[in-house]
Design goal:
The chain is of the alpha/beta class. It folds into 2 domains: 15-141 and 295-368, Periplasmic binding protein-like II (D-Maltodextrin-Binding Protein, domain 2), CATH 3.40.190.10; 162-294 and 378-420, Periplasmic binding protein-like II (D-Maltodextrin-Binding Protein, domain 2). The chain is 47% helix and 13% strand. The strands form 2 sheets. Strands 1, 2, 3, 6, 7, 8, 9 and 10 form an 8-stranded mixed β-sheet that branches. It is globular, with a radius of gyration of 24 Å.
Length: 422
């Protein structure tokens, strides 16, 4: 009898574990990619060799635009994946409903995990009110795309990395013109430089970290919106579009580094931006700020209901911390590794040099500097709704040329009331 019990116990120990992960098809960065699952497929093969008792599965074919709904339905049914990708708009909600496992204790008690090797802001991007609920597998900061062809034609050099709002406005003012003499402006300074870009580059914060208070009426935020209005006035009521930029008619447009990495090399640069030469630099800094931009992260978290917490953590760590896996971010994706030493490795330098042989901007040290100085937006339950409220009002302020100070004072009261009410 004792032998039978021991045998059954041995069988239970050796029973294989199936770990499900949640991923979506296509690039997280919304750029062309030939095999979006290659990063995960290679990680799974390597992980399963090291952990023969663990079998990792995932559903392929779920498009990014359908992923949130797919995941929410799985959560409602109580059979969500053990480990899954998290889209930015879902993170705060997933934490608030308690479906994401808090990771601080796991990270702290794992002697084989050293968070200091990762970019600090990458780690922060997975925090909700200073507690860790997710980790990024790759990241990308925003940069300012520069139409080199247009600036060269106008006799204007590419701005230096520490350029200012004044420099930005001066160039936009000089290039905004009617080039064919038909009486209509057909060349423009900028597209896509939004109110949040202006706020961040002016060194301002919009909320308390816990979402208890908003600061839309602060002088620096008002200054940022007024600068945006000043830029908009140059276009004489014409609404510049992405098509104008694609056609080579716009000098500046903020983009994620992932877009730069995807479209800079042949053949995609020919398909997308083949009609003009372009480069990217830091965003311009305001009077109270620095040349900073928002950091974007592909986050992954563990279900709080997983039956395989240890294995889920080991695979999450394998994705975000294993040298070979993070090197594959450089090979197969358009993001940047979260391990600084991988980004700054000789291989990283080769990758970035291949993207930009002239090296007018992109190199490993400058890229790390942009990441380290980047802005990580606060995480709290009502963040998305509050920002949407601000979007609508600030659009009206800019397009209808309202009094920015008064409008933002009213907006701040409205958002603070929204934040305080349950």
């Amino acid at each position: 009898m004792l032998v039978m019990i021991a045998f059954q116990g041995y069988q239970m120990i050796k029973q294989p574990i199936t770990l499900e992960i949640g991923v979506f098809a296509g690039s997280y960065w919304d750029v062309p990619i030939q095999d979006s699952n290659r990063f995960f497929d290679e990680a799974i093969v390597e992980f399963e060799k090291i952990h023969p008792r663990v079998k990792i599965t995932y559903r392929s074919g779920t498009l990014k635009r359908n992923y949130s709904e797919w995941l929410s339905q799985k959560i409602i049914r109580g059979n969500e994946p053990d480990l899954f990708c998290i889209l930015p708009r879902d993170f705060n909600t997933l934490v608030s409903i308690g479906i994401l496992k808090e990771l601080d204790e796991i990270m702290m008690n794992d002697p084989q995990f050293d968070a200091s090797k990762m970019y600090v802001n990458a780690i922060k991007s997975g925090q909700f009110q200073r507690q860790q609920y997710a980790l990024p597998s790759e990241i990308a900061p925003a940069l300012m795309f520069v139409n080199k062809t247009l600036l060269t034609r106008e006799g204007i050099p590419i701005p230096k990395g520490d350029w200012t709002w004044n420099d930005f406005y001066d160039i936009c003012n000089r290039v905004t013109k009617d080039t064919n003499g038909d009486g209509k402006i057909d060349q423009f300074g900028t597209f896509g430089f939004g109110w949040q870009d202006a706020v961040y580059t002016n060194g301002q914060r919009l909320f308390e970290a816990d979402g208890s208070r908003a600061y839309f009426d602060s002088p620096g935020v008002v200054e940022a919106v007024e600068f945006l209005m000043k830029l908009d006035d140059l276009n004489l009521n014409y609404k510049v579009t992405s098509n104008d930029f694609d056609a080579g008619k716009v000098a500046f447009r903020p983009f994620l580094f992932s877009t730069y990495k995807a479209y800079k090399p042949y053949p995609y640069r020919v398909k997308k931006y083949g009609q003009f030469e372009w480069e990217c630099i830091k965003l311009p800094r305001g009077p109270k700020g620095n040349n900073v931009s928002e950091l974007h992260s592909l986050l992954m978290g563990i279900s709080s209901r997983t039956k395989h917490e240890k294995e889920a953590w080991e695979f999450l760590k394998f994705l975000v911390y294993k040298e070979s896996t993070q090197t594959n971010v450089l090979k197969y994706s358009y993001g940047i590794p979260v391990l600084r030493y991988i980004t700054e490795s000789e291989f990283g330098e080769k990758v970035f040099s291949a993207v930009s042989p002239e090296e007018t901007f992109i190199n490993k040290s400058l890229l790390s500097e942009v990441i380290e100085q980047s802005i990580v937006t606060p995480k709290f339950q009502k963040y998305e709704e509050a920002v949407m409220m601000a979007d609508k009002e600030i659009f009206q302020v800019v397009s209808m040329e309202k009094d920015a100070g008064k409008a933002l004072e009213d907006l701040n009261k409205e958002i603070n009331n929204f934040l305080k009410n349950n």
